Amino acid sequence: MRYIVYGAGAVGGVVGAGLYRSDQEVVLVSRGAHLEAIQRDGLRIEEPSEITTLKIPAVAHPHELTFSESDVVLLAMKSQDTLGALAELSKVAPVSTPIFCVQNGVENERAAQRFFEHVYGVCVVGGSAFLEPGCVMAESGPVFGSLDIGRYPYGLDATVDLVIDNLSTNWVTFARDRVMEWKYTKLLRNLVLAVQALCGANMRQGEFFKIVRAEGEACLRAANIDFVDDQRWDEARSLGPEVPLPPSGRVVGGSSWQSLARATGSIETAYLNGEILMLSRIFGVPAPANRLLYELGLKAARTRQPPGQMTEEELFALLRIRGSSSA
Length: 327
Description:
Elements: E1 2-6, H1 10-21, E2 25-29, H2 32-41, E3 43-46, E4 51-54, E5 58-59, E6 71-75, H3 82-89, E7 99-102, H4 108-113, E8 119-125, E9 128-132, E10 135-138, E11 145-151, H5 158-167, E12 171-175, H6 179-190, H7 192-199, H8 207-222, H9 230-237, H10 255-261, H11 273-283, H12 288-302, H13 312-326
Parallel strand pairs: 1-2, 1-6, 2-5, 3-10, 6-7, 7-8, 11-12
Antiparallel strand pairs: 3-4, 8-11, 9-10
């Protein structure tokens, strides 16, 4: 089996590095300066206890590869880039190629199903970062975190079992016959990423996030979408590694924070807070806090605004102003 990791940033780079170190055949698909650095020097992975450089093969485009029935593709780009990536992948990969969506959000699996027969969801829980070309960082190691894996929209099969076996060296893995329930819970937790990007890397479970999370749960319930309760989530996560945080707090934020830090010009907010906003519009459930984060996150990315330029108090003030103007 060969693993083609399409998108070798924070999550893709860490997953690909783990597979490569466990003697799996891996090829990375990346671009720009990151690709050049990997091809020239290898992929450097920084863990709390060690730094390793791995000479993983890397290409710029799927058409540089010859696909076979033993290939598995791990999609690991940001959700806003998924459709374009799938369109290119479908030109060269057989429709029977297994596609594992190792991504935030819940839209990627649905998009992949338009192009490929066998689609799988992967719920990733573990800190990782990509801030400079050729280097990815893992907040814990040698076990990077936990993965919930299953067929989309539901079910299990032999491919799930095989992939779990190959990943289990570096991850706590769970076979989930209803994996999207876990991904919807991760979506609710990822609603904080926009707060973190706007207000700073140490923003986690503040008061604004509580409002955003409550809106998200209300929208999912209105849509009759199942998600895992916090008790089941915490029980599963307790089986994974503890991720130590520095006493002074985090230095590097999550994926949305990293997008602003790297000034990429795009952000995944439309597929996180925007997912809740879409359900809000369809089912008539108010979600003003998510709408605010959606708009501010996209504007920050578009204008190349650095992360951490606002405070939680400013978010509350803007929310109050919008509430009074719509009253």
